[in-house]
Design goal:
Blueprint: E1 10-14, H1 17-29, H2 33-45, H3 50-53, H4 58-63, H5 65-71, E2 85-90, E3 95-97, H6 101-110, H7 123-138, E4 150-154, E5 160-168, E6 172-176, H8 185-192, H9 198-204, E7 210-214, E8 216-222, H10 224-237, H11 245-257, E9 263-270, E10 275-277, E11 295-297, H12 298-301, H13 304-312, E12 317-319, H14 322-328, H15 333-339, E13 345-353, E14 356-365, H16 383-408, H17 414-432, E15 443-456, H18 459-484, H19 495-510, H20 516-534, H21 539-550, H22 561-588, E16 595-601, E17 603-610, H23 622-646, E18 656-662, E19 667-672, E20 677-681, H24 686-695, E21 712-717, H25 720-735, E22 739-747, E23 758-764, H26 770-774, H27 778-782
Parallel strand pairs: 1-7, 18-21
Antiparallel strand pairs: 2-3, 2-8, 4-5, 5-8, 6-7, 9-10, 9-14, 10-11, 12-13, 13-14, 15-17, 15-18, 15-19, 16-17, 19-20, 21-23, 22-23
Helix pairs in contact: 1-2, 10-11, 14-15, 16-17, 18-19, 18-20, 18-21, 18-22, 19-20, 22-23, 23-25
């Protein structure tokens, strides 16, 4: 008997009785060729009754191979034997025979040790499927238990191909044995609700309780590409960081192309830097185009036709024979680079999302013609999934990069963000590769500094005055309340407390110090307020005390009104000044990106650094520095004019003074990891910071007059070349009606460690309307700058 591989609800009997019965009818009814053929076959079959009654051994199949083939010839046309993948199959026996030529070749290539098995089907599923077939055949149910079944069969060179199995059961009969229990409607309902309970199915369909007689036809359809696409979607939609993702993806592409040793790579395109980089985008997925951790611009990485196809047209670029490709384009660095890696044919597929290049998928083969422009189009069916996945991964990568920067650095200006991003990328790449990476300090050498400030004039004095006014009002009210308290023994007024309050008023007028406010408020809280809270001397005094406490509220009380007006004045001025310089910064960054930071104090200070190292993708020239210096002078003038026009609505009529520090020696800046900000780097460069900190309160040499003055801009410099340069800027702004003809020249007093500084001080024209001021096109001013090409900037040592 046949060895049956698993328990099942029926006994299998291999037989061709349905075909033989058909031959008998043909022999009787038909008078033509079909009848002759039928009679001839019946005569041969008469010598082998087991083909009709039931085959019991594999030997009987082997002995009758030719006869069985003739009997099945109508079902297995000779003309289709090299195309169809077909055989007679008895699945429960793991037996198939009468294969077409194509099926025989597939099995031969798989090797003698290969065992055909249905993917993801176990004994339980097969048993229940068998029971459902019986229910549909004998009980008229319409249970649809079918689901796709697949064989996975390797080729001779190891590429796994996938086939969908189609069964034809037209030549099978199902019958019951004597021991079969009759199923009731209740039994069938129970089965329908008990899919996961195999014991119920075995109870209703005992093992070998039915007979299936006949044979089945099995046809395979090659669905390797469709299966690869399905697996690709599952992998891409799943956890992309799993360790086996690379092997899964390579296996999928090898199945699609039938190339067992195909390799896959990916080159990431950094949109911000405009460069291709070899990034650990996925687990151990590297780039064939970009060696190591280098970065390349597109025109340097690609050549001629490849650049046109990938970058410009954003379509596939394939080379079927790399040696011919190199000969066709002499000096072809791309071809030479890939040839050295043992590549002889390749496909480069740009990954594009909404017109933006994200990267390049690389498929490479060691043999010529295996990959070409025709086979490149197979990628059409997978590219949408690759694009969406890579776009998603890039956003996830950007989130991780931002997290690293936020954690180890701080919020950064866009002009320098690229360098922090690259460092964070290195940190993540090493983490993905299982190694550690020590984050480096970020440094930019040879940058030119620009410093300026618009300082609120007399802000400290105004602040002190507002405090004095508020505290005087509060102290006067307390003195009045204490004097209202009865002098009877039960509630004596503390004369010492009254004396202290009156002395405080005198101090506020004559001896106000930095800590006076804190001393008075602490005294009131500790010594006066407890007396008021314990007072119980009639409703009139109680109401007065309650009113006093209501006015001590910092947000609404009258004892803080002057300080609130002062704070409001500073806030309005700072907001106006910050808005102007921030908006103008957006415009000037378009000309040449540079680092910019500003600080709100009693006014607005700003630091600017510009240089080749900050923006390595653009060529930095002296023209860029001149434009930025003219911009700085013009925007400070605009800030002053805007603040002047704001005065009329300010609680305090405060003005501003402006200062620009000219420093023509390039220096280096370094991001301080602990302090989370940029600072000048090196002992010599510290001198620049010394000048910045000491120049603010400086006097004109030989006088007691401050170098800064309301309505004027003071420009601090050291060298004659700097004076001439800024005189040109002043002339441009005078012609534009921004600056007056009133220009002063003077020397700055010697400061500690700083000597030899000079200054220009020029007046502002405040009569220009606010609306007109906003319409000024800065770019027209830049056109008036003299063009100096790539002249180097004078770098004499700054006098100290």
């Amino acid at each position: 008997m046949f060895t049956q591989k698993t328990d099942k609800p029926f006994r299998l009997e291999l037989s061709f009785h349905k075909l033989i019965e058909g031959l008998r009818q043909t022999a009787v009814i038909d008078n033509g060729y079909k009848a002759v053929r039928a009679k001839e076959l019946l005569m041969r079959l008469a010598q082998h009754p087991e083909l009709d009654e039931g085959i019991t051994s594999i030997k009987q199949i082997a002995d009758n191979t030719e006869l069985i083939a003739d009997l099945l010839s109508d079902l297995f046309p000779e003309a289709l034997t090299n195309n169809e993948i077909k055989a007679v199959s008895i699945p429960y026996m793991g037996l198939s025979f009468n294969h077409t030529c194509r099926f025989k070749k597939i099995l031969a290539d798989a090797g003698q040790d290969f065992q055909v098995a249905i993917r993801d089907f176990d004994d339980k599923h097969l048993y229940i499927l068998s029971c459902c077939i019986i229910l549909n055949r004998l009980y008229g149910t319409k249970l649809d238990f079918s689901r796709p079944m697949f064989y996975d069969i390797p080729t001779a060179d190891g590429v796994m191909r996938h086939y969908r199995i189609l069964y034809n059961a037209d030549f099978l009969d199902v019958s019951a044995t004597d021991k079969v229990p009759k199923l009731s409607k209740a039994d069938i309902d129970e089965l329908m609700n008990s899919y996961d309970n195999i014991d119920v199915w075995i109870e209703k369909f005992p093992i070998n309780s039915y007979i299936i007689k006949g044979f089945g036809l099995m046809t395979l359809i090659d669905v390797t590409v469709e299966n690869a696409l399905s697996n690709l979607k599952s992998n891409l939609l799943g956890n992309y960081s799993t360790p086996d993702i690379k092997e899964n993806l390579i296996t999928i592409f090898r199945s699609m192309y039938g190339i067992s040793d195909m390799r896959m790579g990916f080159t990431l395109f950094d949109i911000n830097e405009g460069k291709f980089i070899n990034s650990h985008f996925g687990p151990d997925i590297h780039s064939f185009l970009v060696p190591y951790q280098e970065a390349h611009r597109g025109e340097k990485l690609l050549c001629g036709n490849s650049y046109q196809r990938i970058i410009k047209e954003q379509t596939y670029f394939a080379v079927s024979d790399i040696s011919k490709y190199i000969k066709q384009e002499r000096g072809n660095s791309l071809g030479e680079h890939l040839k050295k890696q043992g590549i002889n044919s390749f496909i480069l597929a740009p990954i594009v999302k909404d017109g933006v290049l994200l990267g390049i998928l690389e498929l490479v083969s060691p043999r010529i013609r295996e990959l070409n422009s025709v086979t490149a189009n197979k990628l059409d069916i997978v590219m949408p999934f690759l694009v969406d996945t890579i776009d998603r991964k890039i956003h996830e990568l950007q989130d991780r990069v931002r997290a690293v920067i936020q954690r180890h650095y701080t919020t950064l200006h866009p002009s320098v963000y690229w360098k922090f991003r690259r460092e964070a990328q290195n940190f993540i790449d090493c983490a993905n590769g299982g190694s550690t990476y020590q984050l480096k300090e970020i440094k930019f050498a040879d940058v030119y500094p620009l410093y300026g400030q618009v300082d609120i004039s007399e802000s400290s004095a105004t602040r002190n005055l507002s405090v004095c006014n508020d505290l005087t009002n509060q102290l006067n009210e307390l003195i009045s309340i204490l004097e209202m308290m009865p002098k009877a023994d039960k509630k004596p007024v503390n004369n010492e407390r009254l004396t202290d309050l009156k002395n405080f008023i005198v101090d506020l007028k004559t001896n106000f110090k930095a800590d006076t406010e804190q001393i008075i408020l602490h005294y009131l809280e500790e010594n006066i307020h407890p007396i008021l809270k314990e007072a119980n001397d009639g409703p009139k005094l109680t109401i007065r005390i309650e009113k006093y406490f209501s006015h001590t509220d910092a947000l609404t009380g009258s004892y803080h009104v002057h300080r609130r007006n002062y704070d409001k004045t500073l806030s309005m001025i700072n907001q106006k000044l910050a808005t102007i310089i921030d908006n103008r910064q957006t415009e000037i960054q378009e000309f040449f990106p540079h680092y910019y930071e500003r600080f709100k104090t009693d006014g607005i200070e700003h630091n600017i650094y510009i240089g080749q190292t900050i923006t390595p993708n653009k060529t930095f020239t002296v023209n860029d520095l001149h434009r930025l210096r003219l911009w700085q002078l013009r925007v400070i003038a605009e800030m002053e004019v805007e603040q002047y026009n704001l005065k009329s609505i300010l609680p305090y009529q405060l003005g501003v003074t402006s200062l620009v520090l000219v420093f023509s020696t390039p220096l280096a800046i370094r991001f301080r990891m602990h302090e989370k900000h940029f600072d000048v780097d090196g002992a010599y460069n510290i001198r620049y910071e010394v000048i910045k900190k000491r120049i603010d309160k400086a006097m004109i040499k030989g006088t007691s007059e401050r170098i800064t003055q309301q309505g004027k801009i003071t420009i601090i410099y050291a060298k004659a070349e700097e004076r001439k340069e800024y005189q040109r800027y002043i002339s441009i702004l005078q012609d534009a009606g921004v600056l007056s003809d009133d220009v002063e020249h003077f020397e700055v007093e010697e400061l500690q460690g700083v000597a030899g500084l000079k200054a220009l001080r020029v007046g502002l024209i405040h009569t220009r309307a606010i609306q007109e001021d906003h319409t000024i096109d800065y770019s027209k001013l830049y056109k008036r700058l003299p063009k100096t090409g790539n002249q180097p900037i004078h770098t004499d040592i700054y006098p100290l």
